[in-house]
Amino acid sequence: MKAKFLTTLFLLIGWMSFAQEKHLTFKDVPINGTMAEYISKMEENGFNHLATNLRIATLRGDFAGYKNCMLEVSTLWQKDLVHKIDVIFPFKETWSALYGDYSGLKVMLTEKYGKPTEFMEKFVGPHAIDDDRAKMSLVKIGNCKYYAIWRSDQGDIKLSIEHRNHQNYQCFVQLTYLDKVNSQIVKEKTLTDL
Asked: Which domain of life is it from (predicted)?
């Protein structure tokens, strides 16, 4: 009787630990915990904490062979729970440099995670653009749609070419890690409220 009980108990414990959902990781650190906890873990990984505004902490450090990347750690609006990491790679002045970063990172991510689940690589406009300067102009006004998304049970990873309208239209490659478990928490709360 005791042996059956212990066997059942071990099976139950094993099933429960298997059933626990895993979080997406960034630099082998699960995207989970409070803002302060996550900042501490990123500092241990060589990032320097620059500022925290509302629910976003900004850090700077080296990532994937790139120097001085900006890291934005985001928590949920309703709870101090980290759910998203954005890596902003160094700003680029030319399309060839910007696209070089994007395509190099896409190759590495594809090697690690397989083919993207979803991707788009095009410029929005009435005609074909071949000139480097013209392509950068389209990036600056938001008419560049270059992204690749890898979806998994733990969350989504999105690589994209982005811009910011302030500070001289900075153009950069961004890599976003969105944890599925913690993002689902806020969705469930919202659905309950509705």
From this structure: Bacteria
Q: Please give the mean pLDDT across all residues of the chain.
A: 88
Give the three-state DSSP class for 56. Answer: strand
Tokens coding 58: 């900004």
Q: Provide the token pair at 26.
A: 């960034």
How many Å separate Cα 109 from the centre of its chain? 12
| Cα distance between residue 39 and residue 72, in whole Å | 10
Question: From CA 111, how far away is CA 46, in angstroms rounded?
Answer: 25
**pTM value?**
0.85
Given a contact cutoff of 8 angstroms between Cβ atoms, the answer to whether 136 and 168 are in contact is no
Query: Of all residues in the chain, what percent are helix, strand and coil, respectively (each to 5)?
Result: 40, 35, 25
